[in-house]
Amino acid sequence: MADAAPSAQDLNSGTEPLDERTWIDAEKLLPWLEANVEGFKGPLEIRKFKGGQSNPTYQLVTPSQRYVLRRKPPGKLLPSAHAVDREYKVIAALNKVNFPVAKAYALCMDESIVGTIFYVMEQVEGRILWDGTLPDYSPAERRKIYEAEIGTLAALHNVDYKAIGLEDYGKPGNYFSRQVSRWTKQYQASETSVIPEMNQLIAWFPDHTPEDDMTSIVHGDYRLDNMILHPTEQKVAAVLDWELSTLGNPLADFSYFLMSWVMPSQERGGLSGIDDLTTYGIPTIDEAVAQYCKATGRDGLPNLDWYFAYNLFRLAGICQGIVGRVRDGTANSAHAATMEARVPVLARGAWEFAQKAGA
Fold first, then answer.
1. Are 261 and 155 part of one and the same domain?
2. Cα–Cα distance measured from residue 14 to residue 24, given in angstroms and rounded to the nearest whole number
3. What is the CATH number of the domain that holds 319?
């Protein structure tokens, strides 16, 4: 019998040695760390975290502590992408209100140190889970984990972003219109084949976007595997990967999180293959909406079909951007090429929801 294909958990967990493409010169980096990261003392070993097609992420190992370095990838990049300085800014700001993020230590805009700009933060210990069905947990534990995720996202949306110095972190208003424009441009800049549904969506969205009802910090990629759970308790220790964060409409964030409930079960984190979520321990989509609304003071949510169409369209744009980076030779993950097959599937799903929303 053939060995089973490795799971997302296996592919993305742990670290690996540096290779030629991901190389960082430890001898050159160490003096900068000692000068700019409080309490940093070598000797230094550098390893790369597995997984991810976005900003290369490294583990910095010293005798007394472990740190994390996130850098902008080298090579040709799409405009405005991979802004690790923005990641650093939002993490440092959220440190002020004890929101669960890693402690931000230092940002380096000098590209001569490792070849691109980067920042350093603490390594938060805990669990990163990749399968949204949580097969290794009991029903009670599953419910607590999902309720912790929902509560943490609501807490983010309740943060007074002006009070922590993020009033210039994005443009308030017209969020969905601006996002549709952004992902349209990214898709078109990275396009490798004609996908009719993407072109239909690009034509339909501009005249069918909801008005913004409020502005908050939005994470932009809030899902189970972008957070570290406490080592033993079912609570969020740190939210990771703030690359897509900005000021925007919180319903974009929350409806993206809800995509797990409607994504096919073969998709990472998809819950649609579970017949009875209540018995399984995971809140239903209505229960998730009720918890979020109670925590954020909302009376309810509008029809979700438009938001699901938007999120699938956006995911298609993100995946096509990775395909374009494979084409251009700048993708930093060996399995990034598999994204190409996902784009038409996501586009078809987005168009189906758009039709439910009136397209």
1. yes
2. 18
3. 3.90.1200.10
pLDDT in tens, 82-122: 689 999 999 999 999 999 999 999 999 999 999 999 999 99
131 domain-assigned: no
Task: Tell me the Cα Rg of the chain.
Answer: 20
Domain match, 108 and 143 both? no
Q: Regarding beta strands 216-218 and 118-122, do their DSSP bridges make them parallel or antiparallel, or are they unpaired? A: unpaired
Q: What is the bridge-based pairing of β-strands 66-71 and 104-108?
A: unpaired
Are 152 and 108 contained in the same domain?
no
Together in a domain, 157 and 64: no
First-to-last CA distance in the chain?
Answer: 47
- Looking at the fold, whether 117 and 155 belong to one and the same domain comes out as no
HSE (side-chain half, CA atoms, 13 Å) at 282: 22
Question: How far is the C-alpha of 42 from the C-alpha of 62, rounded, in Å?
Answer: 6
CA neighbours closer than 13 Å in the CB half-sphere of residue 161: 24
174/296: higher pLDDT: 296
pTM for this predicted structure: 0.87
C-alpha pair distances (Å), 42 with each of 68, 117, 336, 343: 15, 21, 34, 44
CATH code assigned at 21: 3.30.200.20
Assigned domain for 310 exists? yes
pLDDT tens by residue, 34-65: 999 999 998 999 999 886 557 889 999 999 99
- Domain end (from 76, 91, 122): 122
How would DSSP label each residue in 83-124? -HHHHHHHHHHHHTTT-S-PPEEEEE--TTTTSS-EEEEE--
- Choose between 5 and 89: higher pLDDT: 89
Domain, as residue range, for 295: 139-356
Instruction: Work out whether strand 118-122 and strand 236-239 pair parallel, antiparallel, or are unpaired.
Output: unpaired
Q: Mark whether 30 and 93 lie in a shared domain.
A: yes
Are the C-beta atoms of residues 273 and 264 closer than 8 Å to each other? yes
The 10s digit of each residue's pLDDT in 187-229 is 999 888 899 999 999 999 999 998 888 999 999 999 999 999 9
Q: Which residue has the tokens 């397209």?
A: 359
> Exposed/middle/buried for 242, CB within 10 Å: 0-12, 13-18, 19+?
buried
